[in-house]
Amino acid sequence: MADGTALGDAESESAAELQAGIRTDIPHSARMYDYYLGGRTNYRPDREAANEVATIFPGIFLSAVENRDFMHRATRVLARSHGIRQWLDIGSGIPTSPNLHEVAQSIADDARVVYIDHDPIVLNYARALLRSTPAGRTAYVQADVTQPDSILSDQTVTATLDLSRPVALSLNALLHFIPDDRDAYGIVARLMAGLPSGSALAISHCTPDFAPEVWAEVEGVYRSAGTPGQVRTREEVARFFDGLDLIDPGIAVGHRWRPEESTRIETPLVTDEDVSLWVGVGIKP
Description:
The chain is of the alpha/beta class.
């Protein structure tokens, strides 16, 4: 069900992760997502929690794949049709090939990408995020999205990206882990305020719109695993794009956003409930 395989084997990496202070005895949202995608960077607690989610919402595996495919499509559209050559990918997660920079650099080999994640587990695998084309650049920064000013002023970010030129801010499958009490809307607004005209915002976000009771249970599983979150309605997701010009087709269910751009050989027949993701791309005037 995955569109790629994460690099590395979690069971063989266990000693290194323990040495880095990473807990492998409790579920972790990034490793659960890796499992949904068919990767190997996960442990028994991650798989058990992920399978509990799948019991409640069987579409979770397909939803993860569709989320990944949307990221690929949005990246190609921004590179090819909007001339974007720089990306700030926050909440990058465990590397799964093709990574964002591989997609961007397949269109424009001089594309530059900075990956941001606050989690030390991603740092363990960040080497897979740094394999750039000679003409482009990639970098990784360990930082927290809830501190947007520190991201925008980070020396690695400013050395890799020219913040006076358009940048695509990629927030895929991230914002549903930032509840309103952590100021999700303010964070996105502050990040976009630091980027110039012509920049883009790409978001994918889990939604309860098609199965509210199911998603209430899913939130409970993550909360029990120590990861609070908040899935949002279409209207709530649309608020993140306030002041931006949405590109066609606007806010859409993940698999319905420009499906003709997909490079997947086979696309299964799915329903909106199977995917349960609102996605969109907006351009800053």
